[in-house]
Amino acid sequence: QWIFLSGQFVKKEEAVVSVYDHGFLYGDGVFEGIRAYDGNIFKLEEHLQRLYESARSILLEVPYTKEELTQIIVETIRKNQLEDAYIRVVVSRGSGNLGLDPSNCSQPRLVVIAEALALFPKELYERGLRVGSVASRRNRPDVLNPQIKSLNYLNNILVKLEANQAGVDEALMLNDQGYVTEGSADNVFIIKNGTIFTPPVYLGALEGITRNAIIDLAKEAGYTVKETPFTRHDVYVADEVFLTGTAVEVIAVVEVDGRKIDDGRPGKITNQLLKEFRKVVANDGVK
Ligand code: PLP
């Protein structure tokens, strides 16, 4: 397996980064997770846009143009002979000294990893996820904006740890007012009486690229989609609940905080949207 690291392709075993890299010391950097289906990179432009915006927000310069980075990603997939892949793009502040001041870092570091996908087991899609809301809150947009996909994912990791301890598959994050925001690394949707709801991102959710694709797909299929704040109660009494994300695609949630969602089985509209999504990703994207 070949990894693109600081300007060249190196073997996986040799792909190591300095302990002085501020990505490691301080979580100072940004990243993206991208998928390729059958050789097509899904929504590459949107992912690159978000990467460059995350970087701009933290005053980090991506050391390549979007065109160059596209070539590097395509080459990483090709070199590893992958068709279906999960691609991780990381830009760290680079190596510096032990002080946290980024001006001590010589140059940003780019890493691109492409791997054959470890898809979630098929049974999970058929069974649906058990999810729990957790005590940790989503960080407020005025503190560290969730739109910045930074290497500092502690907020999300704490939430995942709580979910693990509670013995559920995934966590639901609330904001400091108790509104539902998103999962640990996925967006959340609920369906009630045929209308589809997802939290507005200003509540404290990443504006997921899969989320936006699903909103478009659902509207095309004739559904009304509303970006409206909702609480755990609305989730408990929803007809259907599902999560979206680059890694999970579209996955049903069948239980939240011990409450069965409807009959406790993946919903019809959720399954329909997953099917539509799989159709789109098979025919879309950058070769
Ligand atoms: N929310 C968070 C916190 C994430 O890290 C991710 C994953 O990127 C998502 C939601 C889903 O976003 P996307 O569909 O762009 O992968």
Number of helices: 8
For the terminal residues, how far apart are their CA atoms? Answer: 20 Å
CATH fold call of the largest domain:
D-amino Acid Aminotransferase, Chain A, domain 2
Architecture of the largest domain, according to CATH?
Alpha-Beta Barrel
Task: Please name the fourth-level CATH homologous superfamily of the largest domain.
Answer: D-amino Acid Aminotransferase, subunit A, domain 2
| Beta-strand segment tally | 15
Protein name: Branched-chain-amino-acid aminotransferase
InterPro entries: Aminotrans_IV (IPR001544), Aminotrans_IV_CS (IPR018300), Aminotransferase-like (IPR036038), B_amino_transI (IPR005785), BCAT-like_C (IPR043132), BCAT-like_N (IPR043131), Class-IV_PLP-Dep_Aminotrnsfr (IPR050571)
Family: Belongs to the class-IV pyridoxal-phosphate-dependent aminotransferase family.
Function: Acts on leucine, isoleucine and valine.
Descriptors:
287 residues, alpha+beta, D-amino Acid Aminotransferase, Chain A, domain 1, D-amino Acid Aminotransferase, Chain A, domain 2, six-stranded antiparallel beta sheet, 8 helices, 30% helix, 29% strand, binds pyridoxal-5'-phosphate
Brief sketch in words of this structure:
With 287 residues, this protein is of the alpha+beta class. It has helices at 22-26, 44-57, 66-79, 122-127, 154-166, 209-220, 232-236, 268-283, and strands at residues 2-5, 8-11, 29-37, 40-41, 85-92, 109-116, 129-137, 170-174, 180-183, 187-192, 195-198, 225-227, 240-245, 249-256, 259-260.
